[in-house]
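Table S2 (continued). Query chain:
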Amino acid sequence: MLTPSAARWWEARMPELVELTGHPVRSQYKLPWEADALPPADAMLVAPLSCTSLNKWGHGIADTLAIGLVSEGVHLGVPVVAVPYFNQAQAAQPAVPHSRPCRAAGRAAQH
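Corresponding output:
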């Protein structure tokens, strides 16, 4: 699962990701009449987690498939590991301390 931005960066190498995973690589929500192409996740990794995605996730804004799935997964009991990666100026935004997805999910946040 990729964000739309990551899908653009990986576009030329998308066949490698498909071969590696054995599944289609998606970056957009499927249409309601389309079948699920992916099996249920045993766990999820969010890496790198941008400041924007952290704030969206922490505030329940699921406007991309990648954030939507982890938002649901956390509340369905799927283990989720997030690896934040952004600069100090972005980290200093007042919204960041309130956007910890673990806190939003009712779990203890770890630094």
